[in-house]
Amino acid sequence: MTTPSLVPVTLITEAPVQRVGTIELFFDLVFVFALTQLTSLVTHPHGPADYGKALLVFMTLIWIYNGYLWLGGNIELGGESRRRLTFAAMAGFFIMALSIPTVFDAGGLPYALGLLTVTTIHVLLFRTSKNSSARAIWLVAPYNFGAVVFVLAAAFVHPPYDWPLWVAAVATLMFSSVQTRQYGFQLSPGILRSGKACCSSLRWEKASWRWAVGRANWP
Is 59 inside any structural domain? Predict the structure, then answer.
């Protein structure tokens, strides 16, 4: 297996901008639903640690979703096999969303398995890209799967020893950025259309988050 040389991210400006498809919009809505579930972790906090835990979960969510935004700038989701994989990824996100309220308890294992599903499909879809991104994904994948391992391990550890594993998961993802593992990817205007498609929905998430924090009762 060969890896791409370390060159800056290439923006393909001459690529035609495609209209946002229904499957992409539905994918964004599932992700936003996952974000709204985060409010359940801070509606009745028992201290600052609960906000920290919510932030850790948020970081894993936004990281893999950002990965799918990059994916949208490299491939089109047409074709039967790609659509099936995308729907499977949406199912993984949905499982993660449903598990968030109890992610530091009984929901830890379903969340980790959902994250594993989404991360695996992310790599599989990137491998279908016809540019250098199909090789560049191998630079990021080990860190993504490393984070999954930490989250999965946290599901089998009793509090308060589970949240340090979450910290390790997020630190692993952040370390991949420090190591410039985004090099070798190519981006087209598709990544911009995916981001814009979700902006209006994210405004609702921002309002929900403010509402939850405003109702928080400190002990």
Answer: yes
Average pLDDT score over the chain? 78
Residue 190 resides in a domain? yes
The whole-number pLDDT of residue 181 equals 55
Amino acid making up residue 114 = G
pTM of the predicted structure, to 2 decimals: 0.77
In degrees, to the nearest 5, what angle opens at C-alpha 52 toward C-alphas 50 and 53? 65
Q: Provide the terminal-to-terminal Cα distance of the chain, rounded to the nearest Å.
A: 55
For the stretch 167-176, contacts whose Cβ atoms lie closer than 8 Å and that sit 24 or more positions apart, written own/partner, are 167/56, 169/56, 169/60, 170/56, 170/59, 170/60, 172/143, 172/146, 172/147, 173/59, 173/60, 173/63, 173/143, 173/144, 173/147, 175/143, 176/140, 176/143, 176/144
Domain count, the chain: 1
Higher-scoring residue by pLDDT: 59, 73: 59
73-91 tens-digit pLDDT? 777 777 788 889 999 999 9
Residue 14 lies in a domain: no
* Residues in CB range of 155: below 8 A, 6 or more apart: 108, 109, 111, 112, 162
In a domain, 158, yes or no: yes
The per-residue pLDDT for range 106-153, each reduced to its tens digit, is 999 999 999 999 999 999 998 888 777 778 888 889 999 999 999 999
Handedness of CA 86, 201, 204, 148 (dihedral sign): positive
Domain with 101, as residue range(s), is 20-202
